[in-house]
Amino acid sequence: MAKQQQKKKQQTAIQPTRSDDFPEWYQQVIRAADMAENSETRGCMVIKPWGYGIWELIQQQLDVRFKETGHQNAYFPLLIPLSYLEKEAGHAEGFATECAVVTHHRLETEKQDDGSVKMVPTGKLTEPYVIRPTSETIIGSAFSRWIESYRDLPLLVNQWANVMRWEMRPRLFLRTAEFLWQEGHTAHETENEAIEETRTIHRLYEEFLRDHLAIPVIPGEKTEAERFPGADMTLTVEAMVQDKKAIQAGTSHYLGQNFSKAQDISFTGRDGATQHAYTTSWGVSTRLIGTLIMAHSDDDGLVLPPRVAPQQIIIIPVTPKEETREAIIDACQALAEVLRREKSYGGQPLRIHVDSRDIGGGVKKWEWVKKGAPIRIEIGPRDLESGKVCLQRRDQAPNAKEFIPKEDFIRHVEETLADIHNQLLQRATELRDNNITTCTDLGEFTNYWDQEQPGWLLTPWNGSREQEEELSKKHKITIRCLPLDLQDEDPSPCILTGEPTPQRAIWGRSY
Amino acid sequence: MAKQQQKKKQQTAIQPTRSDDFPEWYQQVIRAADMAENSETRGCMVIKPWGYGIWELIQQQLDVRFKETGHQNAYFPLLIPLSYLEKEAGHAEGFATECAVVTHHRLETEKQDDGSVKMVPTGKLTEPYVIRPTSETIIGSAFSRWIESYRDLPLLVNQWANVMRWEMRPRLFLRTAEFLWQEGHTAHETENEAIEETRTIHRLYEEFLRDHLAIPVIPGEKTEAERFPGADMTLTVEAMVQDKKAIQAGTSHYLGQNFSKAQDISFTGRDGATQHAYTTSWGVSTRLIGTLIMAHSDDDGLVLPPRVAPQQIIIIPVTPKEETREAIIDACQALAEVLRREKSYGGQPLRIHVDSRDIGGGVKKWEWVKKGAPIRIEIGPRDLESGKVCLQRRDQAPNAKEFIPKEDFIRHVEETLADIHNQLLQRATELRDNNITTCTDLGEFTNYWDQEQPGWLLTPWNGSREQEEELSKKHKITIRCLPLDLQDEDPSPCILTGEPTPQRAIWGRSY
Description:
2 copies of one chain form a homodimer.
Chain A: H1 2-11, H2 22-33, E1 36-38, E2 45-47, H3 49-68, E3 72-73, E4 79-81, H4 82-86, H5 89-95, E5 101-111, E6 117-131, H6 136-146, E7 155-164, E8 178-188, H7 191-213, E9 218-221, E10 233-240, E11 246-256, H8 258-263, E12 266-268, E13 274-276, E14 278-285, H9 287-296, E15 313-317, H10 322-342, E16 344-345, E17 348-349, E18 352-354, H11 361-371, E19 375-379, H12 381-386, E20 388-393, E21 402-405, H13 406-434, E22 436-438, H14 442-448, E23 456-460, H15 465-475, E24 478-483, E25 492-493, E26 500-501, E27 504-508
Parallel strand pairs in A: 3-7, 15-18, 15-19, 22-23
Antiparallel strand pairs in A: 1-2, 4-6, 5-6, 7-8, 8-14, 9-10, 9-24, 10-11, 11-14, 12-13, 16-17, 19-20, 20-21, 23-27, 24-27, 25-26
């Protein structure tokens, strides 16, 4: 029985598998890796240390890039006066249905007969506040105080914060009522500069996803129907995950003068005349972690790209005999020390953990498989003698192993980590490229969405907003983006209207 | 007129001065250094980049120490169900009067006749939530899910987060409705281990304030009257600032089994019996920045200890003549490069800014004085020839300067920064030690509090809670702590009851 179970485990550590039930597999990967869980606060998750460790790495590495591009961090109030939200009507309507509202500022405690305490809200506020669903309005009000002259521009600010959008169908990391994110907010003298900023961040997100998360995105522009409420242009990076659905992984918005006019972000220009600034906003969130899981993980659990693995290398002493136990553990610690001292990856010291817990080797191994540690190293009595280590890579089959001289492992460790990253990126790129189909025929288009796990369709498109919404509703799809690198092709007939158009659209189902 | 103004400025850049009006001076230092400002969200501040930069450094440096002592970061929901708060009655009552309450989860937009939009809360929640004033209850509920066996202990978790306590008299950094903090929460198998953890963190805070913020605190225990709601023991680090008031800069609480019983944080012990865990909690907040300002700043503005200065060294090119301008700026950049590449302080690369803005040298200099940059370096045409730099230190008079060979400056830069830190620490220690007076006579005690800026009194004390509260009310003071390093002295008569007691108390006014 025990043996049978183990055998089954070796086939696949996560039940159900991806092909059995992808959404449930996703939940089980998170549970098996001990990353997060639901809480009793509706739609809000607890991010456990292994999940939060990934977020910390994402945060540190993105923050460096924001600072290199001239942005400074600041912090703005959690609560937004309702009157602020009301100023930009489109924005207000876009978020109205999902705002948590604070109406009282104290509680009265009532002692119950059984000795317990009951608390009742009191101290009603004359003006209610909403918990920020995003901070354009409150940061805009600060900008209107700070900006006086063109000399104060550009103003380039970023905030790391929690935000709240009351979600009706929450899903860990991908869609939670409260989530953690960064939101950049900038103000510029000219339209061109603001658009340039929007594009710079868009490319930064694309590169970050590729180089840090091993996720190849399609960068593109959202259609009007899918734009951020209040924006003139929304750029997006769209990731395809293993069930071929799309995830909007990050967005960069050009807000034109919509918010600056609503909030009076004005300045004295070079010509002495007062004018309104051009603003942008952009963000990525803990949703990146959900994207990461769905992009790379397999039927044995989480698979982490090395840059964002809280532990990159797990060293496991294999100690069948008591007499060699100490020597083996010492050798493991010594290896960890050498790696920490002499090696680095992506500009950071290596993150290494020696797991010398006194539990079964199989249990230990599978725990780290399920947690997605990129490299596992085992050292046993025979390895100690031969000067070798047993190398196991998370991007390979769980039982694949290679015995290599310890010195070779040390010498090549950075290449090995880079190779794991590249393998993940290559697989994800193949998945994406194999599942984007060019389609120029409406009949084909219509039939395509009947299959169980459709990919994405790339079509010539110049339909109206109404036509887009009709098609979207009919097939439960959306235009994910007008892919930037594929615009201005030779004109082809729009799939719906038949009019020749240089514009291309990508359609798909999404999370 | 301009000259007069400059002269006045050189006397003191901040008006009023500390001796004129300390609380107003404090506000003006913050404004002059561009650190933070009030917002229209009641009691909430905007933390501007220079202030937030200090917080980022505090956060990074504390985080390293938490991780070294075995703690892991995680993240828990912002909103706490009312029913959670009700479980620990003392805790609930302690925070009831300052809780922001979320009662609705959507807004209805009503279009007004003038085209504007008005928003009205709707979607009433069956159970309201409070925005966390602290997270013992919600983290405790996670702990009760996570802990099953003694093998799961100790559980050592920390959270970096925003919290909210509705403040009636807010003051930037020191007391704001929303503030940023870290809150550690741990669970242990035995009382001893939990008390040991409480003390470990207490010492960690003491050392952090001394070694990173140059603030010499008095570590001690709070009396029952001043304890955290729900704690069995509260340890505190108390800082004296320049008007001789006390600031509680950090606290570490031993919670006994109060929260574990209220929330059923129980485990199967080594003997197989079910028992309740012993828990602790501890935190420091953006209040540290207020403490920092009041401890070190002077009548010319902010003074920053080098470890937490967002920029430690400002290099200012002095370019009176166009023909040497480029060479001087190049020399400044080259100096910055050498320092960044070759030098470090406190284990971090140096933070250096070359201020080559094309504005008056005096304006520039005073801006950095007011921002508290520890070192300013000027390089002008003559220095370029002589190979010297003009060194100005923020801990010295604003016009003190020293011309030293550039190579000497580079060679000794770490010592210079360490010396600035030590000077600040020494001054603050002298201020503190000169203003703590031992007092054994009730008449002297009573008279002491009549002076305008009293310091602290150290007295033998074994009075009751009621007697303590009566004395506190009468003189507008509190027992800041029972100082740890001064307990178990030879018994002396309690200042009030006259009974011999080994216990010592420190009394003072506080923020």
